[in-house]
Amino acid sequence: MATRQGLDAEIVLQTAIEIADQLGVEQLSLAALAAKLNIKTPSLYNHIKGLPDLRKQLSKRGLVLVKEAMIEAVLGKSEDDALLAAGMAYVAFARKQPGLYEAISALPDYEDPELQEAGAQVVSFLLRILAAYGLSEEDALHVVRAFRSMVHGFASLENQNGFRMELDRDESLRRLLQTYLRGLRADAADKIK
């Protein structure tokens, strides 16, 4: 079957991202994607291996982009300022690209080497920030896990309309992260004693 002129794997992925961001990743189907691209569904197989492959690509792209957003936010910052900026950037990414963020949260295959590598890159980035705190590797990994739990929880609640009060959400997030950072500092100080 002939492919549409100018259609390539990147255009297919970008269109899938648009659908996921507008409707949610669970509403993304090959039929919806083909309709948006104005092609027949079988033509998609010239660019992707199927829906599981497409979801994997979405997850991988989301992990890369959330890491890039955090990197950009922390440039020129260190320690508490860097972690605060990374947390704010993480949630901002989830706001801007809710479907792509949802794809990260619902990784299709935890054993996939490409997804493991993309996830490891995010963890590695956060560990580099945490190096300034002088934590052991194990302690730093616990901090990364807790950090992700906080920002993911906040982003998920927000994306599901869990915050309905007329109150500045950025300020709530900032306070959450600052409270965590104070605890992290206190814990690190206790370990030095």
Short description:
The chain is mainly α. The chain is 72% helix and 0% strand. The longest helix has 24 residues.
Q: How would you describe this structure to a colleague?
A:
With 193 residues, this protein is an all-alpha fold. It has eight helices and no strands. It has helices spanning 9-23, 30-37, 51-74, 79-96, 98-105, 113-130, 137-159, 169-192. α3 (51-74) packs parallel to α6 (113-130), α4 crosses α5 and α4 packs parallel to α7 (137-159). The longest helix is centred in the N-terminal third of the chain and has 24 residues, at 51-74. The model has no long low-confidence stretch (mean pLDDT 91).
Strand-helix topology:
Elements: H1 9-23, H2 30-37, H3 51-74, H4 79-96, H5 98-105, H6 113-130, H7 137-159, H8 169-192
Organism: Paenibacillus pectinilyticus
Domain HTH-type transcriptional regulator MT1864/Rv1816-like C-terminal: 83-179
Protein name: TetR family transcriptional regulator
Looking at this protein, list some descriptive labels.
elongated, Tetracycline Repressor, domain 2, 193 residues, 0% strand, 8 helices, mainly alpha
Shape: elongated
β-strand percent reads under 5%
The CATH topology label is Tetracycline Repressor, domain 2
Q: Which structural class fits the helix and strand makeup?
A: mainly alpha
Under CATH, the homologous superfamily reads Tetracycline Repressor, domain 2
Helix content: over 70%
Order of helices and strands: HHHHHHHH
Q: What's the CATH architecture?
A: Orthogonal Bundle
- Distance between the ends: 70 Å
How many separate structural domains?
A: 1
